[in-house]
């Protein structure tokens, strides 16, 4: 068809073919082109693209042509965007930062990172949930992964840990079974990101070694308020090796300077609906605001003699060493201060490996760790598609590296020149690298003898004593949460025999707990406890370090207050509250009946951060309700406003309020006599008092009043 008329503009090309008017571009006013100051769009081959809105067709309404190399390349690439998600820890969020060494510790380890005070080493961290798929919600009741990579001057060192210091199983051979049981059931593909189902508890109830971990996962540790408010643990016993080859055993612990804090279960369930990205958004916001989270790396070090005397085997990953017995000494701090430029490039493609150790750090024979050392390397091949994943920038060391490994899919840097083997006789200029006896990684020599046997040491046999110790180390509130969690989870189990078997194990841990759970589940006759391989040691002392609530940070830094206002509110009071919060390192968000145009008492119009149904109180650590006479009745008529207050109350939050807020409280059905968790604020002094209360994070005493 002959081209009749070309009415081209820089935005849109309008072309008339025969009777039809056709467009290049998208035909609309909004069409943008490089001529407006943007970079020129190209194909992957660098060819400038004239039209990214329309495929090449045979006539305006004809079939798309194979010849359209731009279209083909675009679709081809899109079709291949996904890589397999991690088989566990699929949902995660990463951040960059640095590790700053405190005092050098050459007496313990020759690891280069620990040799110079004040030296900063780049790190990348990825936090994750374990069971859910990549798109699952952040507040699943689940263990959190806490994987840290140090880009040291002597290579990459990864501590691939969790926010819990022990694990479910003792031997890596059971890992596939554990994960199959925990993830969605294979026939129905649910539940997603939840352990409240038959397969998980069936497996748990048949694995007494998991009982210590069961106590931890039923505690508030598995519903953290923020990724910033979690401890991290390397779990296994590792070796530190000094210049003379002397070995010291160690556990690695990360202690958040922000303190440890969790949500209550009802809050977790609701946050998953209101903001499934709650944890990642929180980390993103904190880092963008410059409120960089920090953790201290602590070592619990001990020698062979301690290991021999300790009641449990230090090679057993279902056991911990109480900090009261071996103190955790800080050796440096980690600061997270930068988000990745691109999520996929860095967070998704980072390939942590327990096998990544540097000179001065060594493995022990912990059978879980030994198995992990195979699994992490192996899994990267599947996920990242070839053996060259270390060529991806996030996985490449930041120190010089030279080796003769070559070729394979997606190879980015092969050796230069002729020599791709050694020994060779090409000399240092052209002959490539050689080993360094001085700087190289030396495995510490260790005696090993004995028959090949598929067995387990009897020192691994006590499965209940530390589970009991964990339970008795908790406050009453925390113990209640454990019982509630067990009742909730087991109530979702269809088979009564599984519920009963699990309660049987609890009898070894704490009889009252077993009783409460049995009652909660309506079990009439207490099941028999399974036979314990060794008697439970009831003499283990409570360890305060294992409790969250015994270690409340006593500050409100890094926390967030949601301020709910109604039309006619006192803007000065809100400004004072905001200023007070900022003084203690907290932030505020404004919530109102509308997102924009909420009126102050002075008749000013103010924009909000959230409209009431988009800013529920579950998203905040404490709340304030600053009513304005004019609009309080209208606000009280809104169900989400009443829910805001009711949830803050039932989640034990501190609430600041003014006189004008009372009609909303009445409509919500709060008790007439407000408890001490409610702080009336009308001036700076009272605001200070409110913020002082907030330091204890929750008003747990409200529980007793209920
Ligand atoms: Fe694992 C990922 C932590 C036992 C096999 N694991 C993975 C991640 C963390 C942990 C944090 C995510 C890393 C990331 O963010 O990319 N895993 C642990 C801890 C364990 C543990 C603390 C016990 C102490 N893991 C464990 C065993 C095996 C694995 C016993 C297998 C024998 N883990 C894997 C894996 C994953 C993984 C399949 C999946 C994705 C990946 O490695 O990179 O290889």
UniProtKB/TrEMBL annotation:
**Active-site feature positions:** 89, 162
User: From which residue to which does the signal peptide run?
Assistant: none
EC numbers for this chain = 1.11.1.6
Q: Which GO terms describe its cellular component?
A: cytosol
Q: Where is this region: Disordered?
A: 1-31, 420-454
| GO annotation terms (biological process) | hydrogen peroxide catabolic process; response to oxidative stress
Cofactor(s) this protein cannot do without: heme
- Residue ranges constituting the Catalase core domain according to the UniProt record: 42-430
Family note: Belongs to the catalase family. HPII subfamily.
Protein's name according to its UniProt entry: Catalase
Q: What is the lineage of its organism?
A: Bacteria, Pseudomonadati, Bacteroidota, Saprospiria, Saprospirales
């Amino acid at each position: 068809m002959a081209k009749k008329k070309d009415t081209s503009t820089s935005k849109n090309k309008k072309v008339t073919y025969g009777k039809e008017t056709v467009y290049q571009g998208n035909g609309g006013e909004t069409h943008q082109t490089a001529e407006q100051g943007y970079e020129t769009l190209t194909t992957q081959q660098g060819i400038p693209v004239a039209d990214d809105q329309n495929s090449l067709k045979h006539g305006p309404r004809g079939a798309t042509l194979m010849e359209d190399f731009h279209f083909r390349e675009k679709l081809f690439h899109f079709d291949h965007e996904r890589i397999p998600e991690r088989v566990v820890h699929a949902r995660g969020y990463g951040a960059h930062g640095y590790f700053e060494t405190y005092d050098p510790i050459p007496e313990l380890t020759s690891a280069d990172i620990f040799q110079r005070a004040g030296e900063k080493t780049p790190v990348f961290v990825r936090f994750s949930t374990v069971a859910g798929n990549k798109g699952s919600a952040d507040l699943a009741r689940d263990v959190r992964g806490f994987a840290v990579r140090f880009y040291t001057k002597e290579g990459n060192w990864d501590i691939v840990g969790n926010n819990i210091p022990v694990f479910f199983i003792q031997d890596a051979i059971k890992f596939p079974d554990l994960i199959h049981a925990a993830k969605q059931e294979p026939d129905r593909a649910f539940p997603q990101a939840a352990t409240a189902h038959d397969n998980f508890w069936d497996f748990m109830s048949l694995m007494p070694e998991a009982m210590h971990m069961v106590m931890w996962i039923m505690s508030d540790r598995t519903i953290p308020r923020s990724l910033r408010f979690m401890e991290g643990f390397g779990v296994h016993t590792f070796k530190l090796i000094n210049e003379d080859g002397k070995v010291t055993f160690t556990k690695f612990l990360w202690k958040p300077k922000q303190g440890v804090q969790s949500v209550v279960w009802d809050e977790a369930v609701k946050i998953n609906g209101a903001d499934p990205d709650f944890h990642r958004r929180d980390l993103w916001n904190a880092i963008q605001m410059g409120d960089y989270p920090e953790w201290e790396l602590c070592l619990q070090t001990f020698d062979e003699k301690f290991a021999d005397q300790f009641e449990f085997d230090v090679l057993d990953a279902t056991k911990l060493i109480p900090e009261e017995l071996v103190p955790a000494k800080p050796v440096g701090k980690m600061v997270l201060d930068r988000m990745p430029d691109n999520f996929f490039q860095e967070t998704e493609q980072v390939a942590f490996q327990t096998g990544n150790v540097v000179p001065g750090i060594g493995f022990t024979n912990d059978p879980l760790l030994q198995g992990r050392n195979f699994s992490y390397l192996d899994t990267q091949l599947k996920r990242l598609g070839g053996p060259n994943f270390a060529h991806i920038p996030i996985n490449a060391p930041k120190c010089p590296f030279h080796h003769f490994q070559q070729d394979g899919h997606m190879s980015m840097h092969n050796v230069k020149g002729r020599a791709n083997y050694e020994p060779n006789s090409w000399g240092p200029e052209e002959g490539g690298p050689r080993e360094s006896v001085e700087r190289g990684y030396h495995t510490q020599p260790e005696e090993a003898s004995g028959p090949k046997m598929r067995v387990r040491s009897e020192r691994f046999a006590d499965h209940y004593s530390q589970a009991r110790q964990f339970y008795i180390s908790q406050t009453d509130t925390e113990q209640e949460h454990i019982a509630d969690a067990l009742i909730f989870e087991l109530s979702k189990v269809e088979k009564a025999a599984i519920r009963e078997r699990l309660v049987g194990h609890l009898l070894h841990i704490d009889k009252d707990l077993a009783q409460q759970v049995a009652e909660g589940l309506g079990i009439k006759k207490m099941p028999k406890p399974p036979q314990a391989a060794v008697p439970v040691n009831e003499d283990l002392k409570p360890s305060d370090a294992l409790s969250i609530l015994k270690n409340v940070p006593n500050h409100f830094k890094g926390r967030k207050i949601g301020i709910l206002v109604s039309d006619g509110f006192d803007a000065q009071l809100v400004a004072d509250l905001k200023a007070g919060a900022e003084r203690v390192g907290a932030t505020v968000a404004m919530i109102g009946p509308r997102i924009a145009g909420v009126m102050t008492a002075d008749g000013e119009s103010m924009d909000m951060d959230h409209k009431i149904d988009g800013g529920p109180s579950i998203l905040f650590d404490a709340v304030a309700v600053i009513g304005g006479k004019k609009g309080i009745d209208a606000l009280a008529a809104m169900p989400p406003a009443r829910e805001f207050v009711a949830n803050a109350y039932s989640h034990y939050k501190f609430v600041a309020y003014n006189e004008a807020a009372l009609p909303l409280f009445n409509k919500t059905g709060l008790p007439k006599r407000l408890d001490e968790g409610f702080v009336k604020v009308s001036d700076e002094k009272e605001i200070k008092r409110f913020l002082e209360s907030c330091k204890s994070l929750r008003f747990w005493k409200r529980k007793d009043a209920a």
